[in-house]
Amino acid sequence: MSEGPEVIVRVEGEVGRLTLNRPQALNALTTTMCREMIAALTAWRIDPAVAIVMLDHSGERGFCAGGDIRTLAESGAGDGIAAREFFFTEYRLDHLLFHYPKHVVAFMDGVVMGGGVGVARPVRFRVGTERTVFAMPETGIGLFPDVGGSWYLARMPDHIGLWLALTGARIRAADCELLGVITDYVEAAKLEALKTAIIADPAALETLLTEFEADAGRPALAAHQDEISQLFAGDSVEAIVRALQGADSDWAREQAGAIAAKSPLSLKVAFRQLQLGAKATSFAEVMEMEYRIAHRLTVGHDFLEGVRAVIVEKDNAPNWAPARLEDVSEAAVDGIFASLASGQAWSPLP
């Protein structure tokens, strides 16, 4: 177990600093962590002594692997109240960061997935390293690419966001830079020197990022960008799978295999989610939509089964229900997106 609080909150010079501090759990977010970050950011927003905010992590394995999935599944197996409270609070944090008035720099070193994307992607400066691994793998455990995935993934070029959502593919720093997931690439060995320099002179943040910038190399994704653009252009998940299966490409068949392992319900939810997200006119709009989805999927069969198969028992043999894409009805998907009862809807911080 790590020592100290789950989030280390302090002000160093003119820099408000938030350090995720659950390294044994890959800094997976809890409701308490989200609340503490909201409290600090709210205070620093109006504090003239805080010029910028730094968001980083303890440990070497990763920035943040997502939410505390086991705890969410335990809640989902019961009344689901704690799970809904987590998503309500987490999405408020994501929205706060999206509209934060001061510069925030996030160090996306190591694993950045799910909830880690939610707190890092909205900020102005996003630093990756050779250890950065980005993914939105939620369809593999019966969830969906949330924390603003409806906004960010839908706005990636050439259907790449949809590819990430449906396959759960992992990409490295060069690909992240190509897609705008990170804004700067710095060698991991130089991160501490960069952080020290920023704390010493926060006004020089942009200059320092330029000085420490390194070459992330050629993005591997570039070799498949045209394929993704063509094969993920279908008007349904089934159409995309057919296109992948019919393509004369080992890579395409690998993508079809990856999709086949995911929850059929989650796949159809993610497809519609990105369609609607592309049309959204505000970040709050997509967060309200995502909360409706989370409200329902976290108490559903596929989430509990996905966590059992992938995280708890690790047999990687989930029994999805329905088991086939063609058996997921439009009515079932409609129900996931339906409005919540009065008083249950998500709302941003006042």
What does the radius of gyration come to? 20 Å
Considering DSSP H and I runs of 4 or more, what fraction of the residues is helical? 40-55%
Mean pLDDT: 97
State the total count of DSSP E strands: 9
Largest sheet: 6 strands, mixed
Instruction: Specify the structural class.
Output: alpha/beta
Q: What is the chain-wise order of helices and strands? A: EEHEEHHEEHEEHHHEHHHHHHHHH
In whole angstroms, how far apart are the ends? 35 Å
| Rough outline | globular
Q: Enumerate how many helices there are, as a single number.
A: 16
Q: Strands of the largest sheet, in order across it?
A: 1-2-3-5-7-9
User: What portion of residues belong to β-strands?
Assistant: 5-15%
Residue stretches low in confidence (pLDDT < 50, at least 5 long) are: none
Can you give a write-up of this model?
There is one protein chain. With 350 residues, the chain is of the alpha/beta class. The chain is built from 16 helices and 9 strands. The protein has helices at 31-45, 69-76, 81-98, 115-120, 149-152, 160-167, 173-179, 191-200, 205-212, 225-231, 237-246, 250-260, 264-279, 283-297, 301-312, 330-337; strands spanning 7-12, 15-20, 52-57, 62-64, 104-108, 111-113, 125-128, 133-135, 184-185. The strands form 2 sheets. A 6-stranded mixed β-sheet has the order 1-2-3-5-7-9, sandwiched between helices. A hairpin with a 2-residue loop joins strand 1 and strand 2. The radius of gyration is 20 Å and the shape is globular. The two termini are 35 Å apart. The model has no long low-confidence stretch (mean pLDDT 97).
